[in-house]
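queue> holo job accepted (pyridoxal-5'-phosphate)
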Amino acid sequence: MELNDFTPNTIIEPFRIRSVEPIRFTSLEQRKELLQQAGYNPFLLKAKDVLIDLLTDSGTGAMSSNQWSGMISSDESYAGSESFYKFEAAVRDITGFEHVIPTHQGRAAENILFTTIARKGDVIPSNTHFDTTRAHVEHNGAEALDLVIDEGRQPLTIHPFKGNMNVEKLRETIESIGRERIPVIMLTLTNNSGGGQPVSMQNIKEVSEIAREFDIPFFIDACRFAENSWFIKTREDGYADKSPIEIAREIFSYADGCTMSAKKDGMANIGGFLALNDDQIAQECRSLTILTEGFPTYGGMAGYDMEAVAAGLYEALDEGYLRYRIRSTAYFGEKLTDAGISIVQPTGGHAVYIDAREMLPNIKPLEYPAWSLTNALYLIGGVRAVEIGSVMFGLQPDGTEKPAAMELVRLAIPRRVYTQSHIDYLAEVVINTFEQREKLNGYKIVSAPPVLRHFSARLEPFES
Ligand SMILES: *Cc1c(COP(=O)(O)O)cnc(C)c1O
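queue> job finished
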C-alpha cells in the first residue's frame, strides 16, 4: 500500500546542535541586586547574569559549520584578499549593486553614507529610521523624517505590510521642501523600530518611482532583507512561487544602494556593508572608509568575518530556515496573544513587540512604561529584552523630552540559537509578569548622555 505523506504541525529547528554553550540560572534576590548595580538599565547587565538574552538579534546568531569552514580558510591579506572577493561577489549577486564597501557594522555604513551626502538643513525621509540611522542623520545636521503609513503606528491594527511608507506624504514632503534638500530617500526592511513589520514589493516600487521622478537616490536599510523577502513571498500576490533570493534581487533592483548590518540577515557576529551604483558617491565613500574603517577591501572586518558574511547571506535566504524563523516568532506571539497580552500585530520577523502602554496604563509615558516592563521581565524570569519607547526616542535634538509614538518592549530572537522549549519558557515569563502587572513602577532617569541615551543611562524606580 502507498504510504501517505504528512504535513507536520511542529516546525522543527532546521539544524542539529553540535556545539553548546551553558546558560546560568540566578534567583530573584540575585537579579534584584544585579539590576540595581546596572543602574536599572539592562544594557549594563553582564550577559552571564542573563538566562535568555533577547536584547537583540544583532550579531547574536549561531553560525553554521559551512560558515566556520570558510572562516578557517580565510585570506587575511591587507589588500585584495580572496575573502573580500568572495564577499563582494555574494553582495553583488544578491543586490546587483556595483560598488561594495565593507564596514565593521551597519552604523559604519550609515556614517560613511550620511557624512558623504547629508548636509545641515537636509531632510531624509524613511518609513521609520532605526535609532543609529536617526542618530547619524542628525549628527550630520539633517532631519530624520518618519513617514510610515498610519497603520504602522497602531500596534493592534492588522495589516500585512505595516512597514510601508506613506507615499502621498513622501510626495508632499518633496514638493513642499524641494528635492535639493533631500539627498536620499531610505526604506527600512523590515521596519525594526516599527515592530519588525515588512514593506511590500508594491510599496518599494512606488517609493522607487517617486525617487526616480524627482531624481533623488533611493537607498534601502537592508538589515532584514531576507525576512522581508519571506513576508512578500507569503503575503503578497504573485510571489508565492518565487524563491526568497529572486524576491530579494527584485527588491534591490528598484534601489540605488543599501546600507547593511551583516549582524542581522548576514548571519554573522560582526560586519556590514554599503553597496551602491553611483561611481562618484562610491569614490567619496571609499575615501572616507579608508579614514574611518580601513582599506576598502576589508573595511573594518577580518578576512574570516567576510567569509562568514559571504556564506551567511545565502543561508539567510534558505527557504527552510526562513519558514522556521518566521514561524517560531509567530508561535511565540500566539502564546502571548492567547493569554490576553497586546503585542504588535501581526508578529514581525525577528521579534515580538509587547505594547507596554496597553499593559501598564497607570505608568505615564515619561515614566517609561516599556522600560518598567523590560526590567520586570528580567527580575521575574532572567530574560533580557529592550525598550523601544520614550527612553530610546523621547529625547529631542533641542534637549526637551516628548513621549515616543509607541511604548514597546522588543523581545528579539537570535538566529538559530534558542529552541522551542526556550520559547515556551519565555512565554511563561511574559505571562507571569502580565499577571503581576499592577505591582510595576515607573522610572526616572538619573543620568544619561546626550545621544543614544538608552545604551548607558542610569535610572531609578519610583517608590510605590
Ligand atoms: C541593527 C540595525 C542597524 C545598525 O546596524 P549595526 O550593525 O548595529 O551598526 C541599522 N538599521 C537597522 C534597521 C538595524 O536593525
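queue> The chain has 16 helices and 14 strands.
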